[in-house]
Amino acid sequence: MRARWGRMAFAAVVVACLWWLLPPAENLRVTWWSLLPPALAIFLALWARQVVVSLLLGIWLGTTMLAGDPITGFLRVIDTNVREALADPDHVSILLFSMLLGGMVGVMSRSGGTAGVVRLLEPLATTPRRAQFATWLMGVSIFFDDYSNTLVVGHAMRPVTDRHRVSREKLAFLVDSTAAPVACVAVVSTWVGYQVSVLGDALQAGGSTLNPFSVFLQSLPAAFYPFAALTLTLMVALSRRDMGPMLAAERRAQSGELRSPNAQPLADFDSAGLNPDAETPQRWFNAALPVLAVVVVTLGGLWTTGRASLAESGVTDAGLSLVIGASDPFTVLLWGSFVGLVVAVFLAVAQGLLSLQEAVEAAISGFRSMLIAVVVLILAWSLGRVCIDLGTADWLKEAVGPHLPAALLPAAVFLVAAAVAFSTGTSWGTIAILTPLAIPLVLQAAPGSIELLAATVSAILGGSVFGDHCSPISDTTVMSSMASSCDHVDHVRTQLPYALTAAGIALVVGYLPVGFLGVPAAVALPLVIVGTAVVFRLMSSSVDA
Description:
3 domains; two-stranded antiparallel ribbon; 25 helices; mainly alpha
């Protein structure tokens, strides 16, 4: 512990002194210097394993670069970046959604519902392999929104995987690496409207009359990274094989240590005093019904808000995918989580399992267990704002974009998107940044090639999700650690080899052949899936060996 804090003290001194070496503040924007804040935060988080302090130091360095001196930069951390991160309505919605779900889980646990679900699933999830497969199956089933997927699956499956000694790192990986990949390729999801809207603007700017939704559909066979990630998670769940740090984590979990000895979980429900009394009946529906309420209200809300949004735009006849894409997911998630909490409290009180006071206390304990995760999310968003102000993403795209031959566009766009998402921690932000640049570029470089256009669209999407999976400052990565009650750095370390493996195969077997050789995406995709399975088998070892 002393060594860890010694590293952080040393890092603070480095940050305070760095400004002496920096050029004037006005020369730092949209240059390679703008990479320093996210690079410092990510490096320190992995090196010293102090996520909160690492993010603060990264933000401080960025605000110092913008302000010109460390004292003003230190004050800008709280009065500008953190405050404006909290002023974003979408960010507030995510925080409230997470807190409300935490409260719901607290009531479910205290009333015996969570224990009842474990007992119900015991005949089905009888082994670690079956518990992991059930987690994967639930992950791909909740395809309509990645945030809902992450929190619902993590909270619901944690007691089941705990019972079968599956490490928290493995649970976080299965949750994280199914959520965004399945949501971004599902035709009916909250991603669709956003992607089609951004793509439509970019096509129009490039002088194209192509239908953006048709281009999106044509890009799905070229979604090499999402499908490679889904294949990899399925192989991991079914094979009882792992590689790298995850292999060590799984072997540790076999001895009963579900987390590493020095783990600092983002949400700790185990020590929150939420275990039911010995005489409390363990009824599975006290957990299943609140979760079902969240899913049903969310789906109904997506339909309702989507139709209302389209009606305001004068569209009266639209398919399901367009309706969901036009919805207001952040508002709907608030509805779902709030109804879920109310249902959990009602069930507990109505059956006499908890008094109203005890139910409220359980909900507050659930809120409290989410505090660290909320802090990390706020700081991650603050660092993302620093990167925007410094022009980190703008420098990355300007450094690469103008110099690309057409054949390299899908592969290069995939790598640039990954770098932007890794640095800023946002996949949707990366899509918004790169689509207006890359689409006109490919329309100009290869005006008649629909295949190259579709592959480039997919590369933006795949690279954004890949970078998000690798980044400690990504909101979905934070939420996966939170829902799985896992140490955040442990989650990033153990997931990274899998994300890199899926990305490497997607690049070598998918994007490069499609761009250079003109291989149809429909041919490359099966090769990517088979290649992912083969490479994983060769690189992995049995957990039980």
